[in-house]
Design brief:
It is a single chain. By secondary structure, the chain is α+β, with helices and mostly antiparallel strands. The protein is 27% helix and 19% strand. The chain is built from 16 helices and 25 strands. A seven-stranded mixed sheet has the order 8-9-10-1-11-21-12, sandwiched between helices. A hairpin with a 5-residue loop joins strand 14 (378-379) and strand 15 (385-387). Helix 10 (316-325) runs antiparallel to helix 12 (365-374) and helix 15 runs antiparallel to helix 16. The protein starts with 8 loop residues before the first helix and ends with a strand. Pfam families: SBP_bac_5.
């Protein structure tokens, strides 16, 4: 399970040190407030080792099945490359694809690849390798238990290697979002030899060969991953303003489940980065001289996809009661910091094509109560509304990928109870959550969403069931207007026409209360040691240490 075992002593020693620290800090608090600072300054230097403390490392390393994870994605971002780079404003720039063209209908694209790129096993990252990856992203391999990449265009038809450095990609209809999607964190380039392995061998991280600036030196299931820099790496995206090998020699990702222990370990100098510190402690950390970062990602806001297949949420009046019954200002003020912004739509405001429809989901408890009254839900003696002997209930499942989800759900539960909802909160760990909480489950009326995207046009593949879409709201084909808009967006060949349809789509989804926005999302938080400098954050808010260095 490990390419080299000698390095395992470092994580073992680190675990012992952290265990000692945990006993010492259980009763320690670190301050309150909110802030965001960089990781410091100084001249870049080579060398040094970085230790990154993380909540979890998930339950599989099959690339297609783990690349979009908020946890495993950190590792994939260092051992693999992508065809294009996308920054936090959605701007696309060359990477392994150094240029590209498309036809007027946006049904055919030609990618021209950077020469001389190799996977860490020495095999070329050429056109044949790119075709193998495109096919795997689009189709997966169900017979081997390998999923397609979520949000990859459903209109993908085929790709062919024109020559060693040129790939032609064809779609069944216009697909304007194809190029940006190549920078999505699921679109990682893996050696064809690795892609051909059985799923159980792909689940061995040491067998998943990438072309990135780091290689896997060792790993242990949901415990640690050690990466070692690749000395011959020399094809980073120009947007990062650094070429050649990485500066830091090694990166150790160590699982530490306790949020406070992760943060206190960085404060004590026993680790360099703590993932997902408590938001309210960021200002205190910054005042002590630590680097804190709360980068926004491109994607959907934090909110609920409502399952219209579960009564009473098949009734738009009940859905609108949820929409109008949540005090988002109180939520932001109580649980979060100024890094979290009010939602304006179901897209983050930095996503190209997002428009402001916040007027469709104001906090208006009187209006929420009127919707429930009209729908026949009457307050009972205990304050819970009933209709025909049924209690008005909703189950919330805090998202374990978000450190603040439980606290947010508890506050929202208080607000909804005042309206007459009976609220049940069920909390699971990462693995159990993945098994029990999913779109369309009969016991999941409201699915908490934190999906990153690179291009807004990809919504056509998730909001309905067209072309095997994910059908987030369980509407199937029952809403002709939703189907019309989603299909029009998917088939648009003109960006301006697509943006107009996107605006209509956002208004329709919010008016029908299929989606209940909570706030703009800061999914990934970082507490950095003062000795960490020069890290970068991409369009989906992953920290990249290729550019970073260790200083005094």
């Amino acid at each position: 399970m490990s390419t080299r075992t000698a390095r395992r002593t470092a994580p073992r020693a680190l675990r012992a040190a952290l265990a000692t620290l945990a006993a010492a800090v259980l009763a320690t608090a670190c301050g309150t407030g909110a802030a965001q600072t960089g990781g410091g300054s100084g001249e870049p230097t080579d060398g040094g080792d970085l230790t990154f403390l993380i909540d979890s490392l998930g339950d599989t390393w099959i690339p297609n099945n783990s690349a979009i994870s908020s946890f495993q994605g950190h590792i994939w971002g260092h051992v693999t490359d992508k065809l294009v780079y996308v920054d936090d404003e959605g701007a696309v720039s060359p990477w392994i694809a150094e240029r590209w063209e498309q036809n007027d209908q946006a049904t055919e694209f030609t990618l021209h690849l950077r020469p001389g790129v190799t996977f860490s096993d020495g095999s070329p990252l050429d056109a044949a390798a790119v075709v193998a990856n495109l096919d795997m992203w689009a189709n997966g391999d169900p017979d081997r238990g390998i999923n397609p990449i979520g949000l990859f265009p459903k209109t993908y038809d085929r790709a062919e290697a024109v020559d060693a450095s040129t790939v032609r990609v064809q779609f069944s209809s216009s697909t304007l979002g194809f190029i940006p999607t190549l920078g999505y964190h699921g679109s990682i380039l893996i050696s064809p030899a690795s892609l051909a392995l059985p799923a159980e061998q792909q689940a061995d991280l040491s067998r998943d060969i990438g072309s990135g600036p780091y290689v896997v030196e060792s790993w242990r299931d949901d415990d640690s991953v050690v990466l070692r820099k690749r000395d011959d790496y020399d094809w980073a995206p120009g947007a990062l303003d650094h070429q050649g090998p990485a500066r830091i020699d090694s990166i150790t990702y160590q699982v530490v489940a306790e949020q406070q222990v992760r943060s206190s370990s960085v404060q004590a100098g026993q680790a360099d980065v703590a993932y997902n510190p408590a938001p309210k402690e960021l200002e205190g950390f910054a005042a002590q001289g630590f680097g804190v970062a709360a980068p926004r990602y491109l994607g959907f806001v934090n909110g609920w996809a409502i399952n219209t297949g579960v009564a009473p949420y098949d009734d738009v009046r009940v859905r609108r009661a949820l929409q109008f019954g949540i005090d988002r200002d109180e939520l932001l003020a109580t649980v979060y910091t100024p890094d979290w912004l009010p939602a304006e739509s179901f897209f983050q405001s930095n996503v190209p094509g997002a428009t402001d429809h916040s007027d469709l989901f104001p906090f208006d408890p009187a209006r929420a109560a009127a919707e429930l009254d009209t729908a026949g839900w009457v307050p009972g003696p205990d304050g819970v509304r009933t209709r025909d002997g049924q209690r008005l209930t909703i189950t919330l499942n805090p998202n374990p990928y978000l450190a603040t989800s439980r606290a947010a759900d508890e506050l929202i539960a208080q607000q909804l109870r005042r309206l007459g909802f009976e609220v049940d909160i069920r909390t699971y760990d990462v693995v159990t959550y993945g098994q029990r909480v999913a779109f369309g489950n009969s016991d999941v009326p409201a699915y908490e969403l934190t999906r990153s995207i690179i291009d807004a046009g990809t919504v056509a593949g998730v909001l309905t069931d067209a072309d095997n879409g994910e059908d987030w709201f369980a509407v199937g084909g029952s809403d002709p207007e939703l189907s019309r808009l989603a299909t029009g967006i998917a088939d648009a060949s003109d960006p301006a026409a697509r943006d107009a349809l996107l605006d209509e789509l956002q208004a329709h989804v919010l008016d029908q209360a299929y989606f209940v926005p909570l706030h703009q999302q800061v999914q990934r938080l970082y507490l950095n040691s003062p000795r960490v400098h020069g890290e970068a954050y991409n369009g989906v808010a992953y920290a990249n240490y290729y550019t970073a260095w260790i200083g005094d």
